[in-house]
Design goal:
The chain is an alpha/beta fold. The chain contains 13 helices and 18 strands. The chain is globular.
Amino acid sequence: MFSQNCVGPVRRREFLRLGMLALGGMSVAELLAAQAGAGGSAPDTSVILFWMWGGPSQLETYDLKPEAPVEYRGPYRPIPTAVPGLDLCELFPLQAKLGDKISLIRSLHHTMSAHNDASIEVLTGKTPARPDPTSTSRSDHPDFGMVASRLRGAPADGLPRYIGIPRQPFMTQPTYLGVSHAAFATGDPSAANFRAPNLTLVGGVNGQRLDDRRGLLTQFDGFQRNLERPGAATSGDPFRDAALQMLTNPQIASAFDVGKEDPKLRDRYGRHLWGQSCLLARRLAEAGASVITIDALAPTPSDRYFSWDDHINVQTKWDLNDAMRYRAPFMDQGLSALIEDVYQRGLDRKILIVAAGEFGRTPRLTQASGLTGRDHWPDAQSALVSGGGLRMGQVIGATNHKGEFPTERPLTPQDLLATIYRHLGVNHRHEFHDFSGRPIPVLPDGEPIREFL
């Protein structure tokens, strides 16, 4: 199954224009409002999602089929790990050294064949009511980071529960949970002199001037409320006050400061977008953030291979084999360093790492003008899982000899999400109410994957 409406990788300028929809409009004060209505204490656990939007090929990552016919198997060979049967693509030699610290799921599947619909399925656990083949849809339900933000509440120090590096997934929205539970976008941590937005005082702003700004904000808010609702009170906004407190909290700023890390460790992760994103994610998880998504579209901001959507594109010379050969070393370096670092610091029970995209790719290769590609394929996809106190060193599920569909232990995105929610201490059967008052479960179905427990 593949989308007849996806013409392959779009021009980077158009892609960035669409993606910018997710970058604006979220203030720290709005994020801190997440504590409203949320009760109970949260467990000290975190999830890091290495999100490969575009759809990574299972046959070029974690479910190679070297014995398949040539028109299916692709150019790369599997390499073994210390765990029998847990083989990876030869482009991932560093991950292959970590067989006892990773597990692979090879039997994920669903029915959404367009990028945004499939992303919504995987990130929210809700199947879109009306499939959108144009891949411009936005979610009707919050994703798992937004749910965690709402149910776990804001920590006392003001660190956002949900953080997107360098931005949040652009097709999900908090809807009936409220805008306060959208992810806090960090920007590019590999940039020179990186500082997270809204966490650094502008040069020359001292305590007195900050107090002056606090008073000005209070006056402006009161003036705005009076315009909207004559006679309304002008008392200060507690969430805005909390935002100002967050702005001046040195521990929060320190959590975002990758420059505090040993330069050798930064080199080990890689001084590129994916490497420094993985490093920042570890720092934020260690500091207490609940969910951190790494928007792993391309390893450098100006890359022509700007997603994992590996169709053939004759105009741009987009080729699956070349794209994988280029991007794999960046991913292998950053992701393997993250896994090793988490284990070496004794954080492997606290932090769960997941690497996945929205679907797999067609098992049968397409070829044109000397280029090779694969199209959309939700019937089979793979994911890597590490840490979280789960059982590692195993392969869960299997696909047939061509990688077309699951033949053992078929699993859904809802099962993976139920596993994630369990780690976060979130009841995946909890119900919210949408704008009409209708009860909506966190997950309509799915159970934690028993092999991990």
